[in-house]
Amino acid sequence: MLIAECWSLQFAPFRRSIYTRFWHPRSDCAKLHCLPGALLEILDLRHFSSGDLRPLLNEEIDLWASVLSWDYSGSADMILRYVDAKILPGYAAIDRGRIIGYAFFVYEGNKGVIGDLFVTGGDQAPTAAEVESRLLLHVIETLQQSPGIHRVEAQLLVHETGAVVKPFTEQGFSQHARIFMLLQLGAFLKRSLALDNEIEIRSWSERDYQSAAAIITSAYRDHVDAKINDQYRTLSGSLRFLNNIVRFPGCGTFDPESSFVAVHRRSQTLVGLILCSRVRNDVGHVTQICVLPEFRSHGLGEALLAATVANLRQRNFSLLSLTVTEANTRAVELYRHLGFETKRIFDAFVWED
After folding, report:
1. Within a 10 A sphere around the Cβ of 29, how many other Cβ atoms?
2. How far apart are CA 61 and CA 55, in angstroms?
3. CA angle centred on 11, ends 289 and 62, rounded to 5°
4. pTM (2 decimals)?
5. pLDDT tens profile 47-79
6. In the chain, what are the domains?
7. What are φ and ψ of residue 299, in 5° steps?
């Protein structure tokens, strides 16, 4: 059982210089008469301050709350800090002097990751869909033209499947449907499981980092999720993934209390894990759950999930969410059986040179 996560605002790559590569032939363009009757400018985010962007981010916070039951304010504050520091690569869409949308991305080695896209609604021209396409085109072209970039990934969680597909498919991206699922914690259908006596489930510890990365790498070998997130393919990539989950707030705030590992008693080695973050005061989100191939089909993944649910219930959480790739049918069926409901289907996009 595997869940590829995290959607992730991957801020960790800001450890190194990012603007040595950031260039677009139109990034500082004047006025783009790109739409009939509309005057739209697409400008480098470095032209703006947090004060310019704050009204738009407040709208985005409301959207995440209503659609996903997530408190996006922590991520929004971090975005605004990077905007003020002039180190967030991306673009803003300006209509008649007002910022109506933005998109940002980051560089990580030879890969670019599109971190976010948001355009305000309303009935004014240009339409939100048209502005989204224009912003994405700029971001995609920038990344594909950046020296040394051979791969681009994007998972835009609040956009329903197909909503922003055109700019990606036109630029050669593959598309993978993913499912956002939500569980009312009181509705979790816990089943009687007879776990192997050799397996112990205990709380997550900082000492589990290296072993957890090894499990992730082994669990996702030849799996569809490793096509979506290439960090799963190597031990160093899995360590970066864990660091992003535990140290940075892109997937909420890591919650060690509701995160667990499965340990083989005799060998004292990790054979499975579940990591959970707090995305609202009363809402948890499973950022990773996986089990070594040789220990699957014995209820271990379900037992890890049950441990997280029990902990969250005890602490008066009301909801638990997760995302899963639609092609991972076995996992999807299990989550539905346990009481998770599909709330949104969104797309993951991948381009490789």
Report:
1. 13
2. 10
3. 80
4. 0.89
5. 999 999 999 999 999 999 999 999 999 899 999
6. 12-177 (3.40.630.30), 182-347 (3.40.630.30)
7. 80, 10
